[in-house]
Amino acid sequence: xxxxxxxxxxxxxxxxxxxxxxxxxxxxxxxxxxxxxxxxxxxxxxxxxxxxxxxxxxxxxxxxxxxxxxxxxxxxxxxxxx
Length: 82
Prior knowledge:
Blueprint: H1 3-29, H2 35-50, H3 58-79
Helix pairs in contact: 1-3, 2-3
């Protein structure tokens, strides 16, 4: 990996971990939170990702991709019983 890409990987990991921590806290704190609620937010993130007509730029692309990945993994783990 070259230095030019390092910041992208660091930012992606930072957002992914932050989003995952938030999802875990939400699930623990809100007994009414369901996997369908989280999936609804993920669906909105997919829409946001597809609404890139004017070009967001590298940073915003990294953020949205990391958030989507965190939601996908969280949902997969929840539905697998983890």
